[in-house]
Write a structure and sequence with these properties.
mainly alpha, 57% helix, 0% strand, 211 residues
């Protein structure tokens, strides 16, 4: 079927407008928020799952957000330089070698306690920083669950929970060695104990001495 041209096209458009009504108008005050000009559009070719998900739902990926933040924070970072090197990693070789030589729960606990004592200052420092970040700009006041401040406070608590959980594990291992729980009684033991605690049965009337 040939496409309508000239007057025929105008007539077809008029008929379509009459059939479907006037075009929809945006609500009063409606605005389309402009996207970041650096927003990357992703397709499925050579992209990871995060990028494909972002393209489907018109979202920025984590890499997008981090890239924009690094760009916007460049003047601040230049004015406030920070160490570029990560914190020095501890040498665990002596601890692991000693752990491999341990033969008892007491020896394992001695090594683990030494490791926890050595790691505690770094974990506490990390926790203190996370708390400070959560309190930035007083965002922690009335912070909703799942908000950035709430998540940072949770992370600060969990940084220290590593120490508590490891200490609990060591205590449980020592208790199992030095103070084990009583062995639960079996049904047979319970039956025997009940029978032994009963008083002797009275003599039958027919078994008494005759007079």
């Amino acid at each position: 079927m040939p496409r309508p041209r000239g007057p025929q096209l105008l007539a077809a458009l008029a008929d379509d407008r009459d059939a479907h009504g006037p075009p929809l108008q945006a609500p009063k005050g409606f605005r389309i928020t402009p996207r970041n000009p650096d927003f990357d559009l992703y397709d499925n070719v050579g992209r990871d799952a995060d990028q494909i998900h972002a393209a489907r739902y018109n979202l920025a990926t984590r890499a997008d957000l981090k890239r924009w933040a690094r760009r916007d924070a460049q003047p601040f970072r230049a004015a406030h330089p920070l160490p570029d090197q990560p914190w020095p990693a501890p040498d665990l070789t002596p601890y692991l070698d000693t752990l491999a030589a341990a033969q008892s729960a007491a020896e394992v606990d001695a090594v683990t306690d030494h490791v926890l004592d050595a790691a505690e200052p770094a974990l506490r420092a990390l926790s203190d920083y996370l708390v400070a970040a959560a309190r930035w700009n007083r965002e922690n006041r009335n912070a909703a669950k799942g908000s950035p401040s709430n998540l940072l406070m949770t992370a600060a608590s969990r940084a220290l929970s590593v120490l508590a959980l490891a200490d609990e594990a060591g205590t449980n291992r020592l208790r199992a060695t030095y103070d084990p729980a009583p062995t639960p009684a079996t049904p047979t033991d319970l039956q025997q104990g009940t029978t032994a605690s009963l008083p002797p049965s009275p003599p039958s009337p027919g078994t008494g001495p005759r007079r």
